Amino acid sequence: MLAVYAPAVPRPEISPEPAVSVSDVRALRALAHPLRNRLLGLLRLDGPSTATQLGARVGESSGSTSYHLRQLAAYGFVEELEGHGSGRERWWRARHRMTSWQAETLVEQEGGTQVQDELTRLQLAGHGRVLSAWLAQREQLDPAWTAAASLNDYALRLTPEQTRQLAGELHEVLDRWLQARPADQPAEGSELVSVLLDLVPLREWPT
Q1: Could you report the average pLDDT of every consecutive run of 10 residues in the chain (207 residues)?
Q2: What is the CATH number of domain 2-149?
Q3: 3-class SS at 181?
Q4: Fewest Cβ atoms nearer than 10 Å: which of 32, 134, 143, 170?
Q5: Domain coordinates of the chain in residue numbers?
């Protein structure tokens, strides 16, 4: 299973690494906390920030966000940014643009099934927030985006092996686009575009 969080838009001198693959259930349990998940997403999306700034965005105290940033740092997801701020002000940055893990490896570990379930719920909730935000903001965008935006759903009958192959091919396409257009060098007229990619098996189509 590949979990892709918000793509970073870094400054060149502090660009995060492309991705990290995680197999430790303890690290993923730390990431499965809803607030930590949101904080990491914001750092990846907007670049370095302080606990106070992040707290204002998520409606939490700086003490709360500072604690959860330290927890993320303990498992290598974020790190303190040296040479920024002054006095007691600490700046944090995401270390990676994406996090991936294999579901089958995770569920083999004690407590892994519960962590996998929570991560899945967080991803689905995040997808819902993205689509709701687009619906609320689309009138503010250039009219060209009306035609460019794309909502799709497909129904295919596949084996698990075929589903893995399809997922791999789709991720290769997205990776090519990520490499071709660096996040810190956006084209003129560009906006942040969210790509939601889900392949889920169903016994029955919802009606």
Answers
A1: 44 65 94 95 93 96 96 96 75 92 92 95 94 95 93 95 96 87 73 92 91
A2: 1.10.10.10
A3: coil
A4: 143
A5: 2-149
